[in-house]
Amino acid sequence: MGADRLQLHVDGGWGFKRAAVLRRLARSSLAAPRSLFVVAGCLFGLQLSCASKPDGRSGATEGSSSAGPSSTTWAPDVGLGHDSTTTRGAESSSGPEAPAVVVHGHRGDRGSVPPGNTMPSFRSALAYGVDVLEGDLQITDEGSIVFGHDNDLRTTGCTWAGRGSSSSALISNMTDAQLAQWDCHRELDGIQAPPHLHDVVALSDTVGFNLELKRWGTEAADVYLPALIAEDEACRGCLAPRLIVQSFDWIGLEHVHETYASTFEIQLSLLAAAPRPDELKAAAGWAQIWSPDHEIASATAIADAQAMGLAVAPWTVNDEEQMQRLIDAGVDAIITDNPDVLLRMLGR
């Protein structure tokens, strides 16, 4: 690549896989011809001025920049809630660096606004400028999709704020009206109940969403996915291009792929608490992201997953030393309780 600078304007969904491929191309050789990157970019749906002619500057085409190292722009596939032309990476003597790590706010901004999965926490993460809101989905007794890490709201730290006593603390046993009387932020005015899916989606029409299906099994998946599809239809297709569905239940995720992929194109993320190399290789045929516990995300494991065509998004990374280790190892994204810290480390 040498001094070539590519300004990427990505077209389509949250293309972690495409970003990972370009990253490996960028790191493969200092002598790699620019045409290789342009062809790869065109194949993966990136607008790289594929048909542009030279404009007279050394190694530049119309639409590219000759301003200097900081002019390299890596724009994610959709808007991030901030200017999409913001510099996302800088060029070094060894060629252009990979796109900046995608920042997922775990349960929103759980580190500063616990317990997370609440409107105040999601709003706080958006104010920092996160790329993706990560959250957990539960199902009420009425079949509504709401946010919550634990089915038992007492485990989450929420308290009953209604009259008398609650008949149950389990979201799965509650009506929507009962759920609305549980307060997850006693320090704030009013009742801050676990929000419904549509309330959180309505917070931003640009941020990505990485949503975990907390209930396992195909029956639960067949409740979650129609609700997500309905939200997408309500906003005329605004959700699917920026949606990741994640789960530790790989069988359930494969069911999602087999049942809904032809009509609802989203990214599927394989959550993992332990190495599962054989299963991961098989799942790489239909999933797009491997999301391991950061403790098992070694440089070798990251490279192996990326070689399978998977992007890598470790969780939950709150220590700056671990953040830097993973950045250096080439992860595509990091899920963190402290998005403000990670954004600062990335210079954003």
Structural write-up:
The chain is α/β, with parallel strands linked by helices and 348 residues long. It has 2 domains: 7-100, no CATH class; 103-345, Phosphatidylinositol (PI) phosphodiesterase (TIM Barrel). Helix content is 31%, strand content 17%. It is built from 12 helices and 16 strands. The chain has helices spanning 16-28, 34-43, 119-128, 153-156, 176-179, 197-201, 218-234, 250-260, 277-283, 299-307, 320-329, 339-345; strands at 7-10, 46-47, 73-75, 91-92, 95-96, 102-106, 132-139, 145-147, 159-160, 182-183, 208-213, 243-247, 267-272, 289-292, 311-312, 333-336. Strands 6, 7, 8, 11, 12, 13, 14, 15 and 16 form a 9-stranded mixed beta sheet that branches. Strands 2-1-3 form a 3-stranded mixed beta sheet. Helix 7 packs across helix 8 (250-260). It starts with 6 loop residues before the first strand and ends with a helix. Mean pLDDT is 79; it is low at 1-96.
* Number of helical segments with 4 or more residues: 12
State the distance separating the first and last CA atoms: 26 Å
Number of strands: 16
Give the overall silhouette: globular
Backbone CA Rg = 21 Å
Q: Quote the average pLDDT.
A: 79
Query: Uncertain segments of ≥5 residues (pLDDT<50)?
Result: 1-96
**How much helix, percentage-wise, in residues?**
25-40%
Structural class comes to: alpha/beta
- Report the CATH superfamily of the largest domain: Phosphatidylinositol (PI) phosphodiesterase
Q: Tell me the name of the CATH class of the largest domain.
A: Alpha Beta
CATH architecture of the largest domain: Alpha-Beta Barrel
Number of domains: 2
What's the main sheet like?
9 strands, mixed
Proportion of beta-strand residues: 15-25%
